[in-house]
Amino acid sequence: MESKTSILFVCLGNICRSPVAEAVFLEILNQHNLSHQFKIDSAATSPNHIGEKADPRTRKQAISKGIDITHRARQLHPNDFLEFDYILAMDKKNLEDIEKIAPENNKAILAMFASFDPDPNFVEVPDPYWGDAKDFERVYELCQKAGHHLLKHLLKS
Ligand code: 4NP
User: Fold this and answer.
1) pLDDT, mean of residues 131-147
2) pTM above 0.85, yes or no
3) How far apart are CA 137 and CA 88, in angstroms?
4) Residue 127 catalytic?
5) Is residue 17 among the annotated active site residues?
6) Which domain holds residue 36?
7) What is the CATH number of the domain that holds 114?
8) Would you say the CB of residue 127 lies under 6 angstroms from ligand 1?
9) Residue 79: burial class (beta carbons within 10 Å; 0-12, 13-18, 19+)
10) Which ligand 1 atom sits nearest the alpha carbon of residue 17?
11) Total number of domains constituting the chain
């Protein structure tokens, strides 16, 4: 049996962006009947929201797209670097923080989620925490855009 490809999406709090990336990517996998071949999760660089449900604005926006986000925030753990094939950051600061705590025996590919999209203007999924509903909608759209390109990349590699 082939082993699963594992992907961990990471942002600062694990309550606004990475739970959306996780849920949207899982939906893309389901649309392609591929979810059994993957392990998908999300985590935070900070400990600030551990155990919390996703932000109410995130959940409301996801529900409007038919997605129920049930994830509870957790912090990135050193074992994640050995257990996941890809650890994908939403913004540059997230990636810097991920790289800072990566153990020497890291086995994961550490990258920006947007880096699989050839669009040169798409680099980060911006933090919507201090923004409004439009910013949360944008997170969803960007996660869809990046997710499609991530799957394309995974299917050819
Ligand atoms: P996230 O958003 O990293 O996408 O989950 C944030 C969540 C919480 C805070 C900032 C960003 N905060 O400052 O508490």
Assistant:
1) 98
2) yes
3) 20
4) yes
5) yes
6) 5-156
7) 3.40.50.2300
8) yes
9) exposed
10) 4
11) 1
